Amino acid sequence: MTLRDIRLFGDPVLKSSCDPVLVFDEKLALLAHDLLETTTLISGRAGVAANQIGVGLRGFSWNVDGASGVIFNPRLVEVSGQKRLVTEGCLSLPGLWHETPRFEYARVEGQDAAGNPITLEGTGLMAQMLQHECDHLDGLVYIDRLEPEERKLAMRKLREQDWFMKALNG
Q1: CATH assignment of the domain containing 72
Q2: In this structure, is residue 69 part of a structural domain?
Q3: Catalytic residue positions?
Q4: In Å, how far are 1, 7, 34, 90 from 109, measured between CA atoms?
Q5: pTM to 2 decimal places
């Protein structure tokens, strides 16, 4: 069992674009295993991006509606429907939940741990998770997507979090 620590907001790895996976080997299989266990061993986790566990590679795991897995080199190839405000949180910003604009449908194409092509798609939580995790791989966190007034509120609440203040004070 390998449950990896989640990097918290303020860690530079979360604001950096991740590198594409070029080699599909045993080392990548171990990363896939760690990502999946970090997502599935604690209930309520819909996904974890590789940079959230300190690895700057394009990949994430998901656990939505009883389905779970890992995708590498994901590309958000389609979003559609209305952009709606949905309550969203993030493991890298614990304790914060904000109304985040997300499309109703999303489709992602990428590769499994062996390099085979896979497609993920869905509505509801699946669409939200796909957009959220792809953002992570581009160096964005969900508060970067908030509307201006909600973002001000989020930043104010962030400064009130014990974990954030401890990180700032070393």
Answers
A1: 3.90.45.10
A2: yes
A3: 133
A4: 28, 26, 21, 23
A5: 0.94
Number of domains in the chain: 1
Spatial contact of 102 and 128, defined as CB atoms under 8 Å apart: yes
Q: Which domain holds residue 143?
A: 12-168
For residue 132, tell me if it sits in a domain.
yes
- Residue of 38, 43, 77, 78 whose CA lies nearest to 60: 38
For residue 95, how far is the Cα from the chain centroid? Answer: 16
4 part of a folded domain: no
What is the maximum alpha-carbon separation in the chain?
46
pLDDT in tens, 108-139: 999 999 999 999 999 999 999 999 999 999 99
Q: How many CA atoms lie within 13 A of 122 on its CB side?
A: 14
Does some domain include residue 131? yes
- Residue 46's nearest CA partner among 124, 108, 110 is 124
**Of residues 141, 165, 143, 170, the one with CA closest to residue 155:** 143
Judging by DSSP bridges, how do beta strands 97-111 and 67-89 pair with one another?
antiparallel
Per-residue CA distances from 85 to 60, 79, 114, 143 (Å): 23, 15, 36, 13
Structure-token match 């907001």, residue found: 9
pLDDT the model gives residue 3 = 80
